[in-house]
Amino acid sequence: MQMNDFEKAEDVLERVTIAVETLCVAKEDIRTRLKMAMTSIDPLLGRPQDFPTGLEEHARKISEAAVDRDSIDDDTAEKIAQDIWSLFVNLIKIVRPGRD
Fold it and tell me: Angle at Cα 9 formed by Cα 23 and Cα 15, nearest 5°?
């Protein structure tokens, strides 16, 4: 059965929310927080077709940027964290339209 964009957004939102929470509240440095956050969304990022229309490339970009997590510097980790936040915001806009 084919899922529509709303269903896809709902389906991936929980894991992306966990990643965002980890990035925001964990006490470790940004690179460690990113590694922790990525564990919750790695399975999703490997299947960009499971994301709503228009967000597949966003998911692919995050996945590709975070491939070599052990050698990422702080600036790159911050950029990837911002991309995860942006993905989260876009998913929220699909699941809860009108709450910008």
Answer: 35
Q: What residues does each domain of the chain span?
A: 5-93
pTM: predicted TM-score of the whole model, two decimal places: 0.90
Each residue of 42-63: pLDDT tens digit? 999 889 899 999 999 999 999 9
Please say whether the beta carbons of 45 and 20 come within 8 A. no
Burial 24-63 (b: 16+ CB within 10 A, else e): eeeeeebbebbbebbebbeebbeebebbbeebeebbebbb
From the CB of residue 76, how many other CB atoms can be counted at a distance below 10 Å? Answer: 17
In 1-100, which residue ranges form alpha helices assigned H by DSSP? 5-25, 30-45, 56-65, 74-95
